């Protein structure tokens, strides 16, 4: 029996704004050195201290459009005149060398990736409660009451998309949520769909020895 | 968001003879007090020290056949004139009170259960290598060379059934294998199929508060 699965797992971490996916991903990447963050590409100008290849791949509009025409994005979108996208070839390269790739993305992006990824693992991060979600959205925005309610209502609606995902994790504490994602990664690497070719191949190898 | 999934998970642990599933199950049950072993029913006579309801439910042939006619077995089989089966109502009762149920069973039994269980988790235990499998089968049997080869050949063929399972675990060490099963149970309890009704229900509850 082979002991290492050759291909890494693409782990898409997503959920409504305010659920805490950013903090979870940061903690997960700090804790585990076998996980790699997928770096997005964008045409917006770099902010102070942002580094090309670390925070984003900063591309010109022409470069980005060229990649779009070459079908080199798992998903992309235009937001306020700038392009943002997930470069496919980078992700594939990491997966093919056995690395597990973490991709933090909003729900619309995740659903687009799902159309293009057969064996990605889609994890939906949920707030501990709707009250807590409201509080988080309120705390981090300096907006009008009306726009806060709009943001909350949108996050509330977005929770319905959980049914498109493989796993749902309630972010009661970051530590618990991170541990559950680690367990999911371990479980996914044991899935028969991912390992059976290796197993059956190594079995055949034995009989011919 | 609800924090506890109401229903337990049925975990079917199976694999070829010699892969070590018995040792793994014992260790798993010793380690975790939220796991319950499904006790089989049989019509064979109890051996010394075997206790009704612990090692087996010892039934008369009539009692067993009555349960068969009531469709109260997840699977059953006749072996050398005795019946063996997995009582369905016991398993369902445990699952419905949120307990996770471990069921250790051979491959034929597991495949029958799969036909009757929509949401069971089927885990295939693999030996560390085919050499090791051969050694284990040889060590524990006092049989002729020919019958050993037949047993090995049968175990070898049985590995093909892995494709019917959800997960495959290489039993390199019992500790590793047990840890992986624990991770799988955690991951399965986060599966959207298992939790989404609770999530969406608790969300609706909030909006009407």
UniProtKB/TrEMBL annotation, chains A, B:
Its main location: cytoplasm. This is Guanylate kinase. GO terms for cellular component: cytosol. It catalyses: GMP + ATP = GDP + ADP. It is found in: Cytoplasm. The keyword Signal does not apply. InterPro entries: GK/Ca_channel_bsu, Guanylate_kin-like_dom, Guanylate_kinase, Guanylate_kinase_CS, P-loop_NTPase. PROSITE patterns: GUANYLATE_KINASE_1 (PS00856), GUANYLATE_KINASE_2 (PS50052).
